[in-house]
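Need tokens for this chain, all 150 residues.
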Amino acid sequence: MRAVIQRVSQASVTINGVKIAEIQSGLLVLLGVVDSDTSEDIEWLSNKLTNLRIFNDAEGVMNTSLKNSHGSAIVVSQFTLYAQTKKGNRPSYIKAAKPEIAKPLYEQFVQQFETDLEQTVQTGAFGADMNVGLTNDGPVTIIIDTKARE
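Here are the structure tokens for all 150 residues:
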């Protein structure tokens, strides 16, 4: 799994002019899935996102987690995170899992994240053409890959 996480002061997902998800302070998570992802990847990533200390404490230092800051989250599926751009000018998405594999893993990740965070996590609509709006707070943007675990 590959996630691009952004600390936001607000974020939303709109489909066909209808806002389906909206948060204030928290994380916007763009999530890509590959065929080799497992429940171990899901548990590791969910735990990492729940406890990653990227929110400011009382002294203005990034020392507080999403869970401890009581922030919210939106998770949006995004197969383009596995784009390959080595050849030519048209990206290849061959590494991204097909929907029949990706959707259940995406849904399992959201469930695990809700369990770890102890709150409801909002989502986009899997496979839909979405407009994602956000105000990046910081800016803080981090890329996490469960296969690299850097």
